Amino acid sequence: MAQAPLQPARGTHDLIGAEFRRHHHVIEVARRIATLYGFEEWATPIFEDTRVFARGLGDTSDVVSKEMYSFEDRGGESITLRPENTAGVCRALVSNGLTQANLPRKVFYAGPMFRYERPQKGRYRQFHQIGIEVLGAAEPLADAEVIACGWHIQQELGIDEGTVLEINTLGDAASRDAYRAALIAYFTGHREQLSEESRARLEKNPLRIVDSKDPKDRALVAAAPTIQDHLTAEAAGFYAAVKRHLEAFEVPFRENPRIVRGLDYYSHTAFEFVTDRLGAQGTVMGGGRYNGLVEEMGGPATPSVGWAAGVERLSLLLEATGLTPPAPRPVAVIPVGEAAEAAAIDVLQSLRDYGVVAEIAYRGTMKRRMERANRIGAGAAVILGEEELAAGMAVVRNLDAGSQERVALPDLLRALAETGVVESAAQAMLNSILEEELGDDPEDEGAA
């Protein structure tokens, strides 16, 4: 009996065609914009010592307690596939001896992450993130610039009208202590109405109750104290400076006092870019300031701030907005007869040298090769028959218009540029090359 074909593991999926183009486009745009802001790209291992994430995310967090892919390797070491990358970047800063010189470090990253959770649209067990971190900057301007970079990326992707920046402050240590006490007092008075999970968090980490998604908890959270009433003067001043800088960067925002981070080393700015275009899971980019994580990795006190964004969710926004990047339109090179194949190879490589996507069918009659050219979305075809080659010519066919012309091989680039159907980047390159190599417009020459 035939075996069923193998499928991707649950919670994973293949990136093919338009989905891959969106995915790739998100990363490339983010990489380009981050570079403009002075970020350098780092690549940390996909798996780390489990302690990196147990320290970085906290033993009581859902990620550590329920979602990490952890295993013992053959050497008896506890290894974890990274569920996020901020902890890995901080570990890399310490491991590579970069905590004392050239701070702040501005880091961009992109790559796969892994969490064992219920798969749903835009959320997978292997997913991908882009992110930036500014390591070693204590000033509120750093917070605002990090957010501005994220906003710039969304603008460049064309999805900014579908997202909204929400910000809050977590205050300094004194602010958080006062706020924690107020939350404990409030939720203790409603203990029996809390979910079982939130009752367990009440003494250990009451801030995490504010972020609970349980409907029973949400009703109580709506009337809970906010941190604004417990900010020290210094913390309030820091928050005011972040908002003032955001206005200077022309980043629109709204305040949301319910954005929190449960771990003690988070402080001051917390923010999320949210959307209503992806259903209940509306956060597409989120981050904040963390002033103690590098210390958790064994380094010195290093104030830092950053964000991470899900590539899958940004890709879904591209799809919803109708902004899927088009597939490149190749030029199909079609030799007629074996004798023309060597010439076809020369033409192929010449086109590729000039930045033109070019393909050749490996076999088949001219009819079959033309059918393949249409299937792959070619914009033009270069047909090389024995008669044309003997005369130093080729036929250039515009596959959109259905028109064709016989041109001398030295004029092949010009003829392809004039079709207007090659890939836009190659089109610009061709036009530039033609301007440099061929000089004046031929119409001007004819008029002369």
Automatic annotation (TrEMBL):
One GO term describing the cellular component = cytoplasm
Q: What class of enzyme is it?
A: ligase
Tell me the Gene3D superfamilies matching this sequence.
Anticodon-binding domain, Bira Bifunctional Protein, Domain 2
Principal localization reads: cytoplasm
Keyword hit for ATP-binding? yes
Using the record's annotation, list all stretches that form the Aminoacyl-transfer RNA synthetases class-II family profile domain.
10-335
Keywords (A to Z) from UniProt: Aminoacyl-tRNA synthetase, ATP-binding, Cytoplasm, Ligase, Nucleotide-binding, Protein biosynthesis
Task: Kindly indicate whether the keyword Iron belongs to this entry.
Answer: no
Q: Where in the cell is it found?
A: Cytoplasm
According to its UniProt record, the EC number is 6.1.1.21
Q: Supply the SUPFAM superfamilies for this chain.
A: Class II aaRS ABD-related, Class II aaRS and biotin synthetases
Q: Which reaction does it catalyse?
A: tRNA(His) + L-histidine + ATP = L-histidyl-tRNA(His) + AMP + diphosphate + H(+)
GO biological process entries: histidyl-tRNA aminoacylation
MF terms in GO:
ATP binding; histidine-tRNA ligase activity
Alphabetical list of Pfam families matching this protein: HGTP_anticodon (PF03129), tRNA-synt_His (PF13393)
Its domain of life reads Bacteria
Any idea which positions bind L-histidine? 84-86, 115, 129, 133, 261, 265-266
Q: What family is reported?
A: Belongs to the class-II aminoacyl-tRNA synthetase family.
> How would you summarize the oligomeric state and partners of this protein?
Homodimer.
- State what protein this is by name: Histidine--tRNA ligase
Encoding gene per record: hisS
